[in-house]
Amino acid sequence: MRDIANVAVREMRMGFRNPWAYTFMALFTLFMFSLLVINAQDYVTGYSGASSTMLNLGLYLLPLMALMLGSFSLTGEKEDGNWELLTTYPLGTLSFLSGKYLGLAVVLLVIVAFGFGLSGAVGWLTGGGLEPVTYWHLLVFAICVSLFFLGAAMLIGTMARNRWQALTASVAVWFFLIIAWPSVLIAVLGMLPYPWIKPAVTVLTFLNPAELTRLYTIVQLGGGATLGPEYYEWVGWIRSVWGPPVFWAIMLIWVSIAIMISYLVWERGRGRG
Amino acid sequence: MVIFRSHITRIISLLALMLASCALPGPAQVLAEQASADHTLQELLDRTEPGETIILPTGTYQGPITIRKPLTIRAEQEGSVILLGDGRQTTVTIEADGTTLSGIHIEDEAFKEEPAVLVTANRVLLDNLHIRTGAHGIAAREANEGTITGTTIVWAPQGIRMADKGNGIDLLKANGWRITSNVIRDVHDAIYLESSDDGIITDNVVENSRYGIHTMFSDRSSIERNVGRMNVTGAMVMTARHTSVKDNIFVKQSENVNSQGILLYDAHEIVVADNEVEGNRVGIYVEQSTGNVLEGNRVSSNFIGLQLVDASDNQIRANRFVGNVTDAQARGSEQNTIADNYWDSFEGIDADGDGKSDIAYAINPFFASVAQKRPAFQLFFQSPGMVFLESLYQSGKESWSRDASPLMAPPVGGPEAGQAEGDRSLTGWTGLVLLSCTIVLILMMRRRKA
Q1: In chain B, whose CA is at the least distance from the CA of A9?
Q2: Which residue among B24, B39, B108, B265 sits deepest, i.e. has the most Cβ atoms within 10 Å of its Cβ?
Q3: CA A217 to CA A203: how far, in whole Å?
């Protein structure tokens, strides 16, 4: 436990010295600000044009940010020889990976919090901005997307040998999960017999954290009716008291599995090395 | 005679008020007396001559009653006369033309088939009633030219599915009714007209029901200045002609997968104008309808602003679409005249400076057709990948539903879309807290380094 904390604090220090983190912070803040300006006249409440745009632009930026920061941090350890040094210490791989995850999570959440904080405060001062509940749901959305994709980043960082591989893989994963997802699903699942489509879409949605978080947030914002009669029960369920804890549990499981797979792969590498 | 009586009534009620304020135990005695004399209300009605006015003293009366001759029945003091149902039959049955019933609370709370008030006569006036019902609130059957005004109808029994509830006002083959300034909540359809022409439905508030205002096989209705909130659908005009739907406000019809602000189905020559439609699943939905005019409506913050399904020859102009998740969806609806609307998501080019874009706003049918063929893909509604895919799909663009001359700026006039009030400062303070936390954390990390 102490090891995890040590690694996490070290990661946070490195993270806050990393110009990349500040670049992303500036980018995310700029993006939150531009949305604020676009909706300067409107008071954003619930699932509407403005909050839908925020969700989508968040989905463009946050996963890419999490994937790159996370995977670069891990491959950096390999490339710069830090990991070789760390192996001489009595430090378990799982503690190392968990510590990395926690430290990076803090860095990411600081970036998100800074962007949301500034836009929330400025929006309020300039008389526009977001209704508190909507603001809260969008903040939770940004946090969840970041944490989910940081899990995926641990996997990529483990598999990739260097930063270049990590970059390529990050962009590929991002493109597949965010941009190509509906196209691929419509093309592939369109060939399945009709009754199989909905279960297939449901199962695959659980594998894509971007879709999962987006849908969860839309339902929480009161837009569940857009999903149509096929998902009526899901919508009711997500809106019940059980919705949030189960969603957070799913996220915990998802990230744990990602870290466990990373651990196994990393361990295999360690054994050979 | 009636005027004379009403003078006397006023004096009597004043005296009664003074008496009541002097001697507090009074009302309880009055109640007790009347309870013992309950069975006499029908007898009283039967004794009264046609055309006379009955002023009911404050108290609780036991129904059911049947009005067989034209009478005017008022409460001595508005809201102080309570008429109880027997839990099986209709509480008030009106069989005489020209009857007036006013200021009475009707409590008919048992869940049953028979309506609380049943009208089978012409030119009946129901005024200032307060009805708690477990069936239809007011039903009119083959009764014409009645008026319902200032009346509140609320569903009483708990735990009944919406599909099993009764309607607030239910007209069947009842022409020329005026339904104005009523408040109806928690029922099946708040106001339902079937095969009832020339209805005037104005200034009502309809909430938390299935359909707020529902007309079927009913022509020449005017539905104006009503307010609908949180219903499955605000106003539904089905299989009807020559109806006007104007200046209504329909907000937050968004909880149900079939929700919409205004729905036209198999409706023809309907004018839908100057309505405010905000925060619904679909703002205005038009299916299999022709020859309608949709004009000057303010459609804002809906999930889908305008949805057209197999609709043709409609005119859709000078509407304002602002802040909708997606402005419009259209399927099989190429033959409509869509022009001069304002779509806030559309960036036009206005070279000749006439305030209208020179390039058309075309409604991409891709998602609508995908979701229609395989509803499971409805999940991709406005997902980033879907928005991307739609932008790639441009084939057959000539045949899409399109606004040939979209406005560059929203049309002036009419009130701005209502803004929901919330505690904005909470967002501001949350923002400041988040901001200061991050700055402290960053500084902490830096200081160690220094």
Answers
A1: B445
A2: B108
A3: 18
Contact criterion met (CB < 8 Å) for A120 and B255:
no
Q: Does A175 touch chain B (CB under 8 A)?
A: no
CA distance A122 to A140: 19
Structural domain range at position A54 = 2-272
How many Cα atoms occupy the beta-carbon half-sphere of B79 within 13 Å? 3
- Interface mutation vs chain A, best among B299, B421, B430, B436, most A CBs within 10 Å: B430
CB-CB neighbors (< 8 A) of A17 in chain B: 445, 449
- Superfamily holding B39-231: Single-stranded right-handed beta-helix, Pectin lyase-like (2.160.20.10)
Contact A228 B324 (CB under 8 A): no
Four-CA torsion B329, B333, B336, B342, nearest 10 degrees:
10
Domain count, chain A: 1
Matching residue, tokens 């009208």 = B119
From first to last of the 273 residues of chain A, give the pLDDT tens digit.
778 888 888 888 888 888 888 888 899 998 888 877 776 666 677 788 888 888 888 899 999 999 999 999 889 888 888 877 777 777 788 888 888 899 999 999 999 999 988 888 888 887 767 788 888 899 999 999 999 999 999 999 998 888 899 999 999 999 999 999 999 998 888 888 888 888 888 889 899 999 999 999 988 888 888 887 778 788 888 888 888 999 999 999 999 999 999 989 888 876 554
- Among B378, B423, B429, the residue with its CB nearest the CB of A228 is B378
